[in-house]
Structure formats: C-alpha cells, structure tokens
Write the structure tokens for this entry.
Amino acid sequence: MTVWWIWVLLWCFYMRGRQGQKVCIGTDQGFSYTGDLLQHYERLQRRYADCTHVSGNLEITHISDPNIGYNLTFLQTIQYVTGYVLIGLVTEVKIIPLDRLQVIRGDATFNLLGKRCSLAVTLTSTGNDTKRGLREIHLPALTEIIRGNVAFFHNADLCYVDTVLWSAITGDKNDAVFTKTGSSPLCKPCSVSCYYGNVSRCWGPSRNLCQKVEDENTEPTEKDKVCSGTQMGFSYSGSLERHYQRLRHRYTDCTYIRGNLELTHLRDPRVQYDLSFLKTIRYVTGYVLVAMITRVPAIPLDSLQTIRGDELFPLLRSECSLAVALNYDDHDGKRGLRELRLLSLTDISHGEVVFVENPHLCYVNTINWDDVIGGKTKPRFTENHSGIPAFSETCKPCSPSCQNDKTRRCWGHLNKHCQKVADYDNNFIDNECHGTNMGLSYVGSLQKHYDWMKSHYRYCTYVHGNLEITHLRDPAIHYDLSFLEHIRYVTGYVLIALISHVEVVPLTRLEIIRGNTTFDLFNDRSSLAVLVTYSRNEKGYFGLVELQMPALKEISRGRIIFSQNPTLCYVHTIHWDSITGGRYAAVTMDTSDGVTAFSQKCDVCPSVCEVEGVKRCWGQSTRLCQRVLPSKKCHTSCPQRCFALGLLGCCRSQCASTCDGPTTNDCKLCKDYRFGHQCLSSCPYDRHTFPVGQICAVVPP
C-alpha cells in the first residue's frame, strides 16, 4: 500500500470520528466517464449523498442529457475538498448548489488553459439555446482556495463569477482567469445587500448568495476602541456592585465588541446605575443578552447597528443572537426594564430573537423585525407557565412622527426613539428563491423530497415561480412546515397536493399569489389548487385540517380549486371574492369519487372573526381570522377593489386588494412592484434601478 493511501485511510478514520461528518472518496476521471449518462449521474448521487468532506477531487461533469431530470441538491452538504473542483460539460441544470463548500485545498490540480487549477469551470453553454446552460454556481460559504489557480472557459450563460473578489479567496496568490466568458444579458444584478462600497459581489441574485467580504463595517477601524466580550451567561462573580463596576470599566468608550455583550443582574437597590457608557457601542460580533435587570428603566444602546451572531446564546430551545429575559422584580410588581433602545439597529446577521418574561417592557412588539433580521426568522415572544408576559401592552403610544406605512414603530415614546425603517429605494426587502415546475411528480425518496423543500424555502419570502407542496405522506417522517411561514409572495401558482401526514400548512404571511403561471387540472387553469390531502385507515379519514393563509389578500389570475380534501376545514367560510377581485366563478369545490372538497365536521370560527354577521377564518386561532373589510358597492368594472362609489372610486390596476384613494400611492398592497411608496407594473428602466423581490431597488451610481 502506498504512503498516499495510508494517509487517506488515516484521514478518513479521523474524519469519521467527528460528529455529523461523512467522508467520501473523490474521483480522478477528468472529462471521461463509464456507462451511459444516466448511470454516470446516478453514480454521482450515490457517491456524494450526505457527504461533507471529499478526500480527493470533486468532478461534476457530463450533466448534459435533456431527458434526465437532474437534481443536484445532494451537493449541498459538501464543506471541504482536498483536491480540485471540476465543473465541465454541465448544460442541463441552471445551478450548481455547493452552498456549504468552505475550502478547496488543491492538493491535486486540473490542467486547463495551461494553468494548474483547483477550481475549473468550462464548457457549460449550449450555443444560441438560452433556455439551457449553466447560470449560477452557488459558493457563498467559500472562503479559501489554498493552492492552485481558478479558471473559467466557454461559459457564455454563467452569471456572477466575474463579480467575485477572488483575491479574498485565493489569498492574493492568483486571481481568477476568465477566457471567452462574457456577462450574459440574462443575468440579474446582485442583491442590494451584496454591495460593498459601489461594487456588488455575489454568487446569485438573492441576499443569501452575497460573497462574504469583510468590509469597513464588519471589521474595526482605526477609530474604533475594541473590547472583549464575556461568556458568563446568567452567572456573575463578586457582589452586584462589583459586577456593575466591571461592566462599566469594560465597555466605557467601547465601539466594537469582539464576543458577546451580556448585560445582566442590574438589580441592587443600593446601586445608582448609569448605563450611558453603552451609547458608544456600534458592533457586536457575538450575541447580546439582556437579563435580570430590575433597577434600570432603559438600556441605551443607541448606536448599536449590527449584532453579527458569530456565537449564539441557547434559550428556550432557540439559538439567540438577541435574548431579553427575566427583566422584572417578583417582589415589587412595578419595577423592571421598560425600554430597550436599539435606535440604530439594522442588522442581526445570524441567530434568533427571543423575549421571555419582561412584563414591563414596551415597544418591542411594534418593531418591524423583518427589516432587522431580513426575514430569516421571526422573533419569539414567550410567556411562562405563570402567565408572565414577554412584553407589556399597557405602554404610551409611539410618537406620531414614528409612523411608517400606516404603522407606528419605535423603541421609546419620544420622537427620537423611532425605529429606522428600511428605505424601499435603497435596502433589501425580500429574500428571493426560485419555485419549481414538477407538478405532482418528485425526484428521489420522500425523505429527500421533504429535505429539499425544507432547505430550499427556508428563509424565503419571495418565490419566483410556483410553490409546490406535495407528497408529504410518509408516516415515518416527522414533518415540520414552519419553513413556509416567511413566504409572502408567489409569482406563479400554489399547489398543495398528496399531503396526508400533515394537519397544518402554515402559509401565515402569504399575501399575494400572482398567477403568472397556472396549474392545469380538469381543463381549468388554477393559481391555487388543493388536491387529495387525505388518507384513510380503519378509523376513517385523516389528513390536512387547516390551510393557514390569514394574510392572503390577492390572487390576481387563475382559478381556485379544492378537490378530495375530506378533513380540510374553514376554506368554505372564506370570502373568496375579496381575494380574487370578484372574478366570475373563480372557486371550484369539486367532489370526486365520493370524496368531498372540504370537511363539514369542523369547529366554528372564533367569535372575534365575525364581520357583518358572518364568521370567516383559516383556523381555530384568533390569529387566523380572515380580515374582510365591510362590503362596498364598487362599480362593476372594479368589484371588491374600490375606495368609493362609482367609476371614479375604483382602485388603480396596480393595486392588490384595496386602496385608500385614486393614485398608485394609495394601494394597500402592490400587485407587482413598489418604487418608493408608488405601485408600478414594472421598475423604471434605469441601469441603477432593478427589482429585488417586489421592491424597485436603487443602487447609487
């Protein structure tokens, strides 16, 4: 046995001993392969399924048969390659999803264009056929190529690789070599979030595909005073007064904290607390913990802009970058933290936000957390078993000057305490992802199908294409569809079918189904189709019970069909005309093979869901009422879409749902795009303006 193979075996045994990691052996075939193209693809799948570390080379080649339904999601687990990465003759997929690959070591290299390459991408276009060819290589986690060059050759449809700062990955050893690769006219711009100064750097159009480049905002500058954070959690040492003095000494004049900011145990009635020393802090690389503070009314973190979340705090089974807990005095019901003044906070990069047992804390429920967290998750407001609330609802109102988009958002009651809300023209709003066009089919096992959906739609808010939720029917799988809760816009259709082993589909934020593409069924073109969501055993039917879409205001085109959903409740209570704009016969409730379109054996909607004598809801919770406005007699040309009587009272065609006046500035929601406060059917034609989800974003020239 050669020394090389002894090293490989030792390395494999070592890596297999590490939890959650799987080592697989790479290949050394270059552009050759054995068998037919289908066998070649299936071998790739078997070799790299669940693989995290590739010992050798990762060769992704000959993905070129238009008759094979390729699915390369098995590559998403790979984190480390000891040799080179070769992507060649790949024409039948749009994306190579190497989302977790961090390091290419380059122990072996591939010869291309006379260069010894550790990353080589070549021959991925198909001439003039713009519907085929590789468009994106997703490498957002890639931070290091230790040895070798990077080369691209004949990739006419490939986007974004020319925006990447390769010197940050190769360590200035070698920049990337581009030969006969132009910028395709089909490429969308990078997300606004991917701009560093006036330069955009990304691996794809969505926010989570930005190249991670350290810039002046993420590393301390010469003007910063850098302090080390702590890792004490809920504990402290010495007396409460000594603990406070140490906090004050540690953070006075500090602007940048490497580590965690833990503000705890400010509860001694004999100490005169003054936290003004916190006002200079602008950046925290770890988490922020605010806990057991009873003698301070406000935390003045006025300048804090970013909580990066490199380290997270475990609380209530959540991994928190901001945790606010237990800020009350159980002996004196009037004492406790009242304001968390994070006036400049615009970015929480990783982790969750949790509030628990803060009965006096005001205003945190008014904050638009999506602007801060970027739609990746939503804050948890949790009360304990004794009913101690996460925040107070008996607070002074926010100042009228804090009103934005008809909602007041603030960290305190004064004018200067308004939340800095994202500017529609210059900030990222949506986290975009691409939908599917599989219909009632799927690829791989039921487990892999579910895992793909979960990873693909996690944190997604805007779906380009169709949202297909199908084949959730394996009794051995514990399905958790909470990853759907962030989706608010679908450009195509929504298909929910063959899901007998979930009771709830939580599309709780979905506002608009645009219906640009429709699902063909029974000679109807549907933009919402809910089909065969049940199974049967000796006790009777079981399956989907609640389709939770309380935010749904608009289905712009296409029909709505429900068929064979004998356990599905509440959809028959919905006022569909308010959603479809009164289109004639838009909803079909089909009974096939004696199986009903919905259940007749449901609990009634909560009483708070009653409007004009009718209860309308999507589920049993009071949060799931359908919010239907009192009916107006709109003109026949704009049923359900008016602000006043007569033809002049019609909303503009760019408005989704209703409006407050005659202009495109008065829409409650936009059908297509928002530019400033105006709804448009398309973004202005300008090289500095482009759509990011529903927003027409403006990048400074």
